[in-house]
Amino acid sequence: MMNKHTSMPKRLARRLLWAALAMGCLAAAPAQADRLKDLASIQGVRQNQLIGYGLVVGLDGSGDQTTQTPFTVQSVIAMLQNLGVNLPPSTSLQLKNVAAVMVTATLPAFAQPGQTLDITVSSMGNAKSLRGGTLLLTPLKGADGQIYAMAQGNLLVGGVGASANGSKAQVNHLSVGRISAGATVERAVASALGQGNMIQLELNESDFSTASRVVDAINKRFGPETAAAQDGRVIRVRTPEGSDERVAFLGNLESLNVTPGQTNAKVILNARTGSVVMNQAVTLDSCAVSHGNLSVVISSEPVISQPQPLSNGQTVVAGTSQIDIKKDPGQVVLLKQATNLADVVKALNAIGATPQDLLAILQAMKAAGSLRAELEII
């Protein structure tokens, strides 16, 4: 049973460090083949973001306070004028059932007029809630300023409310809602995919070894000179001329299995939570780190193996690593044959090092050149 006096940071650090050890063990396993569609994308086949400004009406007194959001009043007056309603200049509108919102959506590749999109509606004023509101007709524009979709519909706002003994609690905020199929595409985005007999694959991450393996796999499956690498990210692929044949070819191309090249060793540190994540086993060189009452010494000693007399063998010099970790003069953790970061993390966790101690020690190892990995702090 866990001691109730055990602090929450230490328990969280223990769980996160064991997770880091598990990630290191899994990363050391042989690489598996992935589908090409998970490693690369086709140039020109992409999504486009849309944005629009609109009004949500029908709120139950939870809309914008017009004294603090004058743009809501201006939007209502402009909308009424477009509908043929002219208000006297001295009219003071007190709108409690209206909220100014921003509408966002993602236009997928090859979307055609008449198709529908899901949209997200977010309050930009001080409305307390958008629940029960209706979004009025809102044009959605792309980065070029052109209108690509029109949005309208009733909002669905999530959230659970509870009250007890006069107090209220709200789970999830109510200033954002979604409308399923709330926008209709009005304009298609031109695509250059169907022009010519050449496409370009773009790897998700630039890697020369992976690009070379992709080219070899494509040429082996579809014939020589079908693919050629332009650099560590872009690969040119020759496709059939006809659109139907091209679509079938790309379908087979995306399903092709490729074993990616081994990625660079990386250690990711979360300074807020103290979590440590490794994408593969990370090697360490000799170093000595002192941090408060903690000291870490990593040393490599040569081991000489001599053959028996008259055996015609050769003398072999091999290196072994030894890690000494001390928290106080009476507590020493000695690890032999330890050459990866997982052993250091495990040993530090065994003597009760905090996440802040671990972050400081890893940063010192990286600065000293002992940590053979890219160190990323988030």
From TrEMBL:
Residues 1-33 form the signal peptide. GO terms for cellular component: bacterial-type flagellum basal body, distal rod, P ring; outer membrane-bounded periplasmic space. It holds the Pfam family FlgI. InterPro entries: Flag_FlgI. Its main location: other. It is found in: Bacterial flagellum basal body. Keywords: Bacterial flagellum, Cell projection, Cilium, Flagellum, Signal. GO terms for molecular function: structural molecule activity. It comes from the Bacteria. One of its GO terms (biological process) is bacterial-type flagellum-dependent cell motility. The basal body constitutes a major portion of the flagellar organelle and consists of four rings (L,P,S, and M) mounted on a central rod. Belongs to the FlgI family. Assembles around the rod to form the L-ring and probably protects the motor/basal body from shearing forces during rotation. This is Flagellar P-ring protein.
